[in-house]
Design brief:
By secondary structure, the chain is an all-alpha fold. Helix content is 80%, strand content 0%. The two termini are 26 Å apart.
């Protein structure tokens, strides 16, 4: 795959595919134990992507090109909530508490901060 093969539609599909991989039990465990998605995601990213100069540079370029997609998910909690709960009523039930919404906000804020530092610093 070349950088020119990466499109906004492909980025959207990757994000939604990743979200669909989340099981109810994993989400419930994360909310109840305040485990934030950025800790898990960046654990993998730092090992596979961010330690290598070339892949880090490519990742940074992709983030900058599609920053508006990052913001669509992480700056609009209503949109993120809709994507997470789409066709998943059990997720909706779980995420409708005040505590779960706060957890979701913290996940989005923390992920945004980390991605921002990678892309723009």
């Amino acid at each position: 795959m070349q950088l020119s093969d990466i499109t906004e539609e492909r980025i959207e599909r990757w994000i939604k595919l990743g979200i669909r991989q989340i099981s109810y039990q994993d989400l419930k465990h994360a909310v109840e134990n305040k485990i934030y998605a950025d800790d898990i995601l960046f654990n993998h990213l730092s090992y596979f992507t961010l330690r290598n100069r070339i892949t880090k540079s490519m990742f940074k370029t992709i983030l900058r090109l599609y920053w508006h997609v990052v913001e669509r998910y992480l700056c609009n909690l209503d949109y993120l909530y809709r994507v997470l709960t789409e066709n998943r009523p059990e997720f909706k039930h779980l995420l409708d508490s005040r505590e779960a919404r706060h957890w979701l906000y913290q996940c989005a804020r923390r992920a945004y901060d980390k991605l921002y530092r990678i892309a723009w610093c």
